[in-house]
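Quick start: read one record
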Amino acid sequence: MPATTRTTLRRGLAAAAALPLLIGALASCGYGSDAKNDEKKVAAEGAKLSADTVRLGYFPNLTHATALVGDQEGILQKELGGTKLVPTTFNAGPSEIEALNADSIDIGFIGPSPSINGYVKTKGTNLRIIGGSASGGVKLVVNPSKIKTLDDLKGKKIATPQLGNTQDVAFLNWISEKGWKVNAQSGKGDVSVVRTDNKVTPNAYASGAIDGAWVPEPTASKLVSDGAKVLIDESDLWPDKKFVITNIIVSQKFLTAHPDVVEAFLRGAVKTNEWINANPDKAKASANAKLKNLSGKALGAEVIDAAWPSIQFTNDPLAATLQAQADHAVKAGLLEKPELAGIYDLKPLNKVLKAAGKPEVSDAGLGAK
């Protein structure tokens, strides 16, 4: 072997021998450790969990901003890693429950009344509520030229999003407390309850087909921007001005088969709520960007700026208010008195909250055993 070749070889071997020492030195400074953590992070984010996909249902409403923002900012997908998030949007709860029961979605953001109906109809064999998402964000808005006081509602046409949805139940309960009579199924009576898709409610109001609406945001503030006035903010009707408007639900089949996916999704939801509450202006813009993506049109500043402050984003499902809303549905004649024990399974959420150093939440005695 020529001398020059032997010299080059010795230098190469010396460099190779020194390499572990160099890596060790970098690690002792933190660089090697960070590199390994980054590799683990990339691997975790790209790793597929026990399901190829998770099919998510939610509404294009600001009361579902945890889903809007979590999807728009990629927070949910980041926690799911290589398991693909596949979202679908719905107008109101009953249609989303149908999709859950038909195994068309796995996880959903939804109101309390459809959650209760879905649980009862399957005798507790399918749906579970696994977390909270939002409180508030519902208003009764009316045409001020026709309705100036609450008593003026008698004989008028008021829209709700769908028969049996959360706002429909709330309005029927309010009517009942006034001592007025309305047939819950037909909507006919002392007040005409007109079930109208949120997307067309503003046009129905503009045409005079309805005189007002008991609706979630942003529909309520859209109507206000068209000249309607807020007659009731539903938060004012509840103790501490808190009531569940949006839950996170899952099919029991999916929860049993893919607990790791459910836990990852809940981590994403908790992180999304944290980001929303820490960055309200950015979150509002993010939700609006997602609404534009879904509908082709962003909300005007006059709408979203009025709507956003009325919604509280929370991991707490406010379980005690779910029982109250079930009682309202019974009183309205939409539901026989339900047995709700087992409707909640908050163990995955509380595991996530505990790991994040956040307070655990209560199922108000309605948890799965």
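Residues 341 and 366 are 4 Å apart (CA to CA).
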